[in-house]
Write a structure and sequence with these properties.
Structural class: mainly alpha
InterPro entries: Cro/C1-type_HTH, Lambda_DNA-bd_dom_sf
Protein name: Helix-turn-helix domain-containing protein
Length: about 240
């Protein structure tokens, strides 16, 4: 749910956009200008007063509430207990990954051998964990930001290393749009940090493309996974050949 402060911030911006001043609003709702300023300054407002203001100004109350919900702070990562709950149930982890990919319930049912009842229960559990906010008609919105990352060396990353990495690299990486590179280099600490920042930019670009392509129909999109690793490392067999 949105906080009262967020709702008032959205309402204030909507009033400003329509050219309605505190003085003008006060005249429309029959109170003093100082009372209006106090309503907004206290960062709280009764729902009946919010409905009244929206009615006399022609601002849609549902738009105010929706925009306030969209503006709420979003987490960049889950907590350790949240990730632990996901890996304890592979189907819950699957549903979480589908939600991060903005799949609809209908798409999940068409793709995987899951019943509608099971999917709804999984969505409810993800809502309880704080990954999504479940809405009417089994729709949802994410409670995490576009910069979302799994915890470094957290339960999900460890699960991926144990169960997913070998399967991922078993592919040939020769289809259109695929690539596999292993590029060794000797770098200074400053250069390594510079490249790490560029990797972050690449992740941001992937998020942007993913967000933009959500407007396309499902049959025009396919599932891609970017797996990037960058660290100071030498193959153990090569290290064994080093001179003492």
């Amino acid at each position: 749910m949105s906080s009262p402060e967020q709702v008032l911030d959205v309402l204030r911006a909507a009033l400003r956009a329509t050219g309605i001043t505190y003085k003008s609003l006060a005249e429309r709702i029959g109170v003093s200008e100082s009372s209006v300023k106090r309503m907004f300054g206290q960062k709280d407002m009764a729902l009946s007063r919010l409905a009244q203001i929206c009615q006399v100004t022609g601002i849609a109350m549902e738009d105010v509430l929706r925009r306030a919900a969209d503006a709420r702070p979003q987490a960049d990562a889950l907590t350790l207990p949240q990730e632990t709950s996901l890996v304890a149930n592979p189907r819950l982890l699957l549903m979480a990954i589908c939600c991060l990919g903005h799949w609809s319930l209908e798409q999940v049912l068409e793709t995987y051998r899951l019943t509608e009842t099971e999917c709804i229960k999984l969505l409810a559990e993800l809502d309880r964990l704080g990954l999504i906010e479940l809405k009417p008609l089994n729709r949802y919105s994410l409670r995490v930001s576009n910069a979302f990352r799994w915890l470094p060396d957290g339960p999900v990353q460890r699960f991926f290393r144990e169960h997913v990495v070998a399967d991922y690299f078993a592919g040939r990486f020769d289809r259109p749009g695929e690539a596999l590179m292993c590029l060794p280099a000797r770098l200074s600490s400053a250069s390594a940090q510079e490249l790490a920042q560029k990797i972050e930019q690449l992740a941001g670009e992937l998020a942007r493309l993913h967000r933009n392509d959500r407007r396309l129909p499902p049959h025009e999109r396919d599932g891609y996974t970017l797996l990037v690793g960058f660290r100071s490392w030498e193959f153990a067999a090569f290290t064994a050949l080093r001179r003492g």
